[in-house]
Amino acid sequence: MKIMQTQTEIMTFDPEIFFNVLLPPIIFHAGYSLKKKHFFQNLGSILTYAFLGTAISCIIIGLIVYGFVKAMIYVGQLKNGDFHFTDCLFFGSLMSATDPVTVLAIFHELHVDPDLYTLLFGESVFNDAVAIVLTYSISIYSPKENPNAFDTAAFFQSVGNFLGIFTGSFAMGSAYAVVTALLTKFTKLCEFPMLETGLFFLLSWSAFLSAEAAGLTGIVAVLFCGVTQAHYTYNNLSSDSKTRTKQLFEFMNFLAENVIFCYMGLALFTFQNHIFNAPFILGAFLAIFVARACNIYPLSFLLNLGRKQRIPWNFQHMMMFSGLRGAIAFALAIRNTESQPKQMMFTTTLLLVFFTVWVFGGGTTPMLTWLQIRVGVDLDENPKEEPSSHQEANNSDKSVTKAESARLFRMWYGFDHKYLKPILTHSGPPLTSTLPEWCGPLSRLLTSPQAYGEQLKEDDADCIVNQDELAMTFQEQTSIPCSPSPGPVVDQKASPQTPSKENIYEGDLGLGGYELKLEQTLGQSQMN
Amino acid sequence: MEELATEKEAEESHRQDSVSLLTFILLLTLTILTIWLFKHRRVRFLHETGLAMIYGLIVGVILRYGTPATSGRDKSLSCTQEDRAFSTLLVNVSGKFFEYTLKGEISPGKLNSVEQNDMLRKVTFDPEVFFNILLPPIIFHAGYSLKKRHFFRNLGSILAYAFLGTAVSCFIIGNLMYGVVKLMKIVGQLSDKFYYTDCLFFGAIISATDPVTVLAIFNELHADVDLYALLFGESVLNDAVAIVLSSSIVAYQPAGLNTHAFDAAAFFKSVGIFLGIFSGSFTMGSVTGVVTALVTKFTKLHCFPLLETALFFLMSWSTFLLAEACGFTGVVAVLFCGITQAHYTYNNLSVESRSRTKQLFEVLHFLAENFIFSYMGLALFTFQKHVFSPIFIIGAFVAIFLGRAAHIYPLSFFLNLGRRHKIGWNFQHMMMFSGLRGAMAFALAIRDTASYARQMMFTTTLLIVFFTVWIIGGGTTPMLSWLNIRVGVDPDQDPPPNNDSFQVLQGDGPDSVGGNRTKQESAWIFRLWYSFDHNYLKPTLTHSGPPLTTTLPSWCGLLARCLTSPQVYDNQEPLREEDSDFILTEGDLTLTYGDSTVTANGSSGSHTASTSLEGGRRTKSSAEEMLERDLGMGDQKVSSRGTPLVFPLQENA
Predict the structure, then answer these.
(1) What's the CA gap between A116 and A38, in Å, rounded?
(2) Helix (H), strand (E) at residue B98
(3) Are B52 and B23 within 8 A, CB to CB?
(4) Residues A291, A296, A302, CA angle at the centre, nearest 5°?
(5) Do B437 and B210 touch, CB atoms closer than 8 A?
(6) Is-contact A423 A431, C-beta < 8 A?
(7) Gap from B26 CA to chain A (nearest CA, Å)
(8) What's the whole-number mean pLDDT along residues B188-201?
(9) At the N or C end, where does chain A have fewer CB atoms within 10 A?
(10) Widest CA span in chain A
């Protein structure tokens, strides 16, 4: 008996292992593989789902579970006083981290509609980051007097914490990626792919460690580091290093993910303090469905007001269905299992993960056919454009917020294209043409010789993406500041020039064939 | 509130862990960048490992003298309830329970010198980290990249250097050091106990050579491939022998009162332990390698390179864990697992998995190695219990050079008696010169630093590693040109076949009948192993080789049919593979044991060699890389011997 005891004790890892060893490669890999053209097309929707959606789902789950807890106390199943509203919110936030890895694997295999894929994938990736920070800021919410009453100061402190940690981690992650991009750009490290891969790996890891050392969230930093690495550094790597880094992180992601899921199965029996509480579990099941519904349907409705390419009903149903829970929810739940409510939450989380992965994961293929979502889509094919012209007509009156956000995106894209890309990578227009005259020497220093050669080609391709993205998400606004918006006719005309361009831009080139001329003239005038 | 306090403390400690790890990571980053600069400018006097040590030293100095000494709250409580240490301890501090875990025993005199500096304590790793995390990838990579045809050609010499040589060097260093220790006792320099077994232990740990710097330069300059294979093979197997040797010396415990006198029973027990651990680890490593080969052969896993790579990695890792769990030496098991994987499994992998596994282990190896070397630099300053004893250090330096000389020159002399392709004097000097010490010696030395003698050894080992890596590593290029060792050799090119035909003729002549008996025997053992490997193991474990249906006796035809993969029957595959493989065997044996092979088994050898005339020439390009160059030799032998030619396929069918 005693031997058994120690054996199970040995098989129980320190939960911090998940956060320090297993999750970083998973999250980094997710960020690193986000470099899909459809991701940037749907960026607005993805961010909405990830931030607003997670907040909504957290609050709704928290409220429903709180209702169940109250009911249980009333019935006498639960002692009054140990399950507070903050605990419920905590549960809500950790349950909001969706991880539809099963669904995505099937989507990938069946070549399901790329827009749906990107929406789900992007949402789940950013979701995790939001949920982690949210959980942390809820757990440090501690009002002064009555520890469970509402306290405005403490609440705002928590909100401040959330924002601080999130932006801090974001800044840390991108800073490291920018450093990597600069290093790989200005050294000839690409002669030695092994050194390059090593550097890439080490700097990405240091993003995690620095964030942890600074008291921020390493995982969030690693996520944004991955996204930035994919956006900038990846272009500077030698082709050997590109496959090496891809494969390395793919491999680590695969191992880490399977270790976590194995451990989940193990933990159901080896964890010593399970509390199975049937009403709570039922309540949680109900809560996550309701919350998922409240997150997807209203947000999709709102987004559809602004999107050119609407999110149809079957996509919404599919997204609703794909609310699987996975590694992050588990890791967050196992991190703290000291008090009784936390143990109850852990058990419930475990069961929810099992249920969603097995039942939902297994039901994906039937669901796809039932919802008539098209499969076998060629990834490079452009989505159909039929409604666009019709759309444009009735969109002349738009809200100020939309216009603003469109301007924001546009500004960012212009900045990224004109300054960041040329500084950090070998592509983009030469800085000498985009920067003002007075910083000429600096710009000449920072521009790589390749940029002059490839200027024209890259310039086009890049611009077009920007234009296209904006056109897709905020199409009506975009068209006003910058001349006629891309129409379907132009699109077909320009499509044959694709092959030599970078992968992500491929599909988008067509759309911008027209835009190209406009931008080109703009650039020319600046140069002269 | 108190709960919050402990939580905060845990958070603080986590933060410091992150900082200390970050220090190392940034060190490695810096090393990578600098080494790129060096490679770019073709600077060869400093290898990346040496560079990593220099950066480690700098950071060590900063940490040592630049950070304030903060002290934790320590309090010693006496406890007399049980005479055994508790692994975990619950302490009741005014109503609150805190859990403490066992860290290790402290000698009574050192109670007050428990490390006070928090930062220094953080950057000092548990030495087991080296054995469980950092060394396995290094050693596995070494084993995995041993699949060089020159390695198998020089197998006999390599084994002789590794086993006999390590034993010789261990004893010589041990004895010399014992003399030095005696001298120190007379002079009055030694205050603590230092036994003969300690000296032998030192001999064992310092016998693990690690000429990574030299090998990197060889690789870059394309130095003579035979020399490369000899040095690399020796250093790899060396490590394994040294680990097991040191652990069996530690296990030497005579029965009587005097625990450090010679005791025959205990001595033989130690020898038994050595053999047991070595063969156990060897078996374990090769068994996992074989299992991986079988799994990759009989599943269609090569359609999914990711899964294949993961399986490969996990199986190799489980070797290590399995061996450690069974009380064997994981590092040795991993080494042999690596060799087996390279020999069998590698052939079954898909093309993508081959490059994936190669690259994966290359990166892991690179990172782990540089990590260890930068840690070494750091340890010179952050390790708190250094014992610098000039006499011991000078004695150790003299001892390692004498030990190296006493091992290379006599062994080379004996090997030259049997080798056709003799090890030239300049090669011997170069091997003597390349006796660098590296990661393994350091890891073995840091493993146990409890007693005074061990601390002195650790300090000395550290200095020896520094000296050899910087001075000897830096002197490799001048030494190569001074010794007139040819560089820029094309690895696929034959060594000059100077007296090839002469040798073969001599082999056929009557005087070789009365050849050395032991030589003949070992040749016979090698021959037996090679043909077994070729006829049974290769076909069973890989898709190459002759179909088992032809090599196995007819009564186990069913088994043979089910073990033979369908590819083997396809087109000319069997013939081709068979030829080239067998010829390798011939080549090996003739090179190492030139004359005796031919007499021992002359006729059967020529059969297969003849097949190579047809099969080999035709398919030379597609045959495995390592086998290629031996084809040529086979031809010549055929012509000189002129025995009747029979195709083995027809014979067996």
Answers:
(1) 9
(2) strand B96-101
(3) no
(4) 125
(5) yes
(6) yes
(7) 7
(8) 79
(9) N
(10) 84
pTM: 0.77
**What residues have CB less than 8 Å from B272, skipping those under 6 apart?**
none
- In this structure, chain B runs to a length of 653
| Cβ contact A104:A117 at 8 Å | yes
Could you tell me if B100 and B87 are in contact, meaning their C-beta atoms sit under 8 angstroms apart?
no
Q: Is the pLDDT of residue B515 over 60?
A: no
Query: B363 and B141 in contact (C-beta within 8 Å)?
Result: no
Q: Which two tokens stand for residue A319?
A: 């997204």
- B290 phi/psi in degrees, rounded to 5: -65, -40
Residue A358 CA to residue A281 CA, distance in Å, equals: 17
- Measured CA distances, A165 to A218, B89, B187 (Å): 10, 36, 64
What pLDDT digit, counting tens, does each position of A101-123 carry?
778 888 878 888 888 888 888 88
Minimal Cβ distance to B309: which of A215, A218, A251: A251
Neighbours of B85 (CB within 10 A): 11
CA A344 distance to own-chain centroid: 29
Q: Which amino acid is at B127?
A: P
- Tell which of A182, A209, A241 to mutate to test the B interface (max B CBs under 10 Å): A209
Give chain B positions within 8 Å (CB) of A187: 33, 36-37
C-alpha to C-alpha distance for B508 and B605, rounded to whole angstroms: 13
User: H/E element holding B93?
Assistant: strand B88-93
ipTM of the complex: 0.75
Instruction: State whether residue B313 sits within 8 Å of chain A by CB.
Output: yes
Nearest to B273 by CA among B259, B254, B255, B252: B252
User: How wide is the angle at C-alpha B360 spanned by C-alphas B355 and B365, nearest 5°?
Assistant: 125
CA–CA gap between residue B558 and residue B549 (Å, rounded) = 8
> Is B512 part of the contact surface with chain A (CB cutoff 8 Å)?
no
Number of other residues whose CB lies within 10 A of the CB of residue A286: 15
Contact B253, B259 (CB under 8 A): yes
What burial class does residue A144 get, using C-beta atoms within 10 Å of its C-beta: 0-12 exposed, 13-18 middle, 19+ buried? exposed
pLDDT confidence band for B273 (50 / 70 / 90): confident
Q: d(Cα A126, Cα A117) in Å, to the nearest integer? A: 14
Contact B114, B74 (CB under 8 A): yes
CA distance B541 to B291: 9
How many residues belong to chain A?
528
CA dist A478 and A480 (Å) reads 5
Crossing angle (nearest 10°) for helices B351-382 and B305-325: 40
Is B182:B199 a contact under the CB 8 Å cutoff? no
The rounded distance, in Å, linking the Cα atoms of B550 and A520 is 72
Q: How far apart are CA B628 and CA B218, in angstroms?
A: 22
**Lookup: tokens for B419:** 């080798």
**B500 CB neighbour count, 10 Å cutoff:** 20
Question: How far is B83 from B225, CA to CA, in rounded Å?
Answer: 59
How far, in Å, CA of B354 to CA of A370, rounded?
42
3-state secondary structure B479-492: HHHHCCCCCCCCCC
**Looking at chain A, which residue has its C-alpha nearest residue B16?**
A213
Residues of B in contact with A250 (CB under 8 A): 306
> CA A430 → CA A401, A461, A517, distances in Å?
34, 15, 18
Distances (CA, A) of B127 to B119, B202, B287, B443: 17, 17, 28, 7
Residue A264 is classified by DSSP as: H
Residue ranges in chain A whose pLDDT is less than 50: 1-4, 382-404, 454-528
Mean pLDDT of all residues in B617-634: 39
| A111 Cβ contact list (under 8 Å, min separation 6) | A375, A376, A377, A378, A379
Per-position DSSP letters for A413-429, written without gaps between them: HHHIIIIIHHHHSS-SS
